[in-house]
Specification:
- The chain has 390 residues and is mostly helical.
- The protein has one domain (2-372).
- 76% of the residues lie in helices and 0% in strands.
- The protein contains 19 helices and no strands.
- The longest helix is centred in the N-terminal third of the chain and has 27 residues, at 2-28.
- It starts with a helix and ends with a helix.
């Protein structure tokens, strides 16, 4: 009984700490306080659902929490050891319960969601209610809050993604956030951190408004860090210290075979790269859903697909973003991460989690160019309906 009461008490304390946090942080991201607090409450709901589901059916979060209760810290290494050490800091020093630890990660993931919303909010002003609701709908998708609130790598990686996206919108003013995003990603998923740095390298080299001398200096600096991070990331991923075509091919084939095991998998080994990429982001389709979770994921994919269709249509019409963002970096990172992950992941359950490390960038890139005429078209339909039915 005492354990249950303590678990409830520490969960409530952490929840209210997060609630107070949500009253102040939104202002830093140009988000209204009420909206920021609503997003925190929404994120918390899915956090508790995720904790209940994992407690009931098991998952990595249970193992991370159980390992954190052991004595002493494990040696520092990116990935799972970092998650265990982070969790152990709270369980050993403050006795935080399983649900309380979920709520700690809930705060971390919430900041990532808030940064994602702030980024979309910056490019939907003046585009009509439909575009605004579409952007808000993406942020409200269950999978965004479900996985980013769990004990594990996803809350930290989503925070890194959100901060990197928010920084890229105005890189000159927010350049300090980018190293933080890279370090956070490096702690849990070094291979994605390497892609972030490579994306920045491409952006610095190709940026039109940067002088040749600055391009060379920034490009060399970025490539230097990429040269340090990339071999380390490949070793972490299991490719090995010696990297050649044969070792990379063996790694990709091994990952495909590994991920084919278990439910929710599809055979991607015989697919072309474009089909692998489509599968990674847009599947399962509605007619492929075989469970409630797959049905929810398929419904989410409909909205993502709609955004892509409208975004590509707007690109073809020459529409441009209303803000002076670092689009070269966004495209470079998104495509590199999309290709790398889609080639090595066949399990759609894993894809539904890990795609949110780069999909926020793609969603932003699409919504940012959906022209005002799209919003005005749907606004006119609403006005016409209200005039017909006063």
């Amino acid at each position: 009984m005492f354990v249950i009461l303590f678990s409830i008490a520490d969960s409530l304390i952490i929840f209210f700490i997060g609630l107070i946090f949500s009253a102040f942080v939104p202002k830093l991201l140009n988000v209204r306080q009420k909206t920021g607090m609503f997003l925190y409450l929404w994120h918390t709901v899915w956090c508790l659902v995720c904790a209940w589901f994992i407690m009931k059916d098991g998952g990595d979060a249970l193992k991370y929490y159980a390992d954190s209760l052991g004595e002493g810290y494990v040696s520092f290494r990116p990935g799972s050891p970092s998650v265990i050490n982070f969790t152990r800091f709270f369980t050993s020093n403050f006795g935080v319960s399983f649900y309380g630890m979920f709520l700690v990660n809930n705060i971390i993931g919430y900041v990532g969601v808030l940064a994602f919303f702030a980024s979309l909010n910056a490019v939907t002003i003046g585009k009509g209610r439909f575009v605004g609701l579409m952007a808000f709908g993406v942020v409200m998708l269950p999978s965004v809050s479900f996985w980013s609130s769990a004990i594990g790598k996803d809350s930290i990686s989503f925070l890194a993604t959100g901060l990197a996206l928010w920084a890229a919108i105005d890189l000159k003013r927010r350049i300090g956030l980018m190293p933080i995003a890279v370090i956070l990603m490096l702690i849990v998923r070094p291979h994605i951190a390497a892609i972030l740095v490579l994306g920045l390298s491409v952006a610095f080299v190709l940026h039109a408004k940067v002088s040749l001398a600055q391009r060379v200096a920034l490009g060399v600096l970025s490539l230097f860090f990429a040269a340090i991070i990339t071999p380390f990331s490949l070793e972490y991923a299991g490719v090995g210290e010696t990297v050649d075509i044969e070792s990379l091919t063996d790694y990709v084939e091994g990952r495909q075979g590994l991920n084919l095991r278990g439910g929710g998998s599809v055979d991607i080994s015989s697919m072309s790269l474009p089909m692998q990429m489509i599968t990674y982001v847009f599947r399962p389709f509605i007619f492929e859903a075989r469970s409630s979770f797959q049905l929810i994921s398929a419904a989410e994919n409909i909205l993502i697909l709609l955004i892509f269709i409208l975004g590509i249509r707007s690109y073809l019409h020459g529409s441009q973003s209303p803000v002076n963002d670092t689009r070269v970096f966004m495209w470079a990172f998104s495509i590199l991460a999309w290709v790398a992950l889609s080639m090595t992941t066949a399990n759609l359950g894993i894809a539904s989690r890990q795609k949110w490390m780069f999909v926020p960038f793609l969603v932003y890139l699409m919504i940012s160019v959906i022209d005002y005429r799209t919003g005005k078209f749907f606004a006119r339909q609403e006005v016409q309906k209200s005039n017909v039915n006063p």
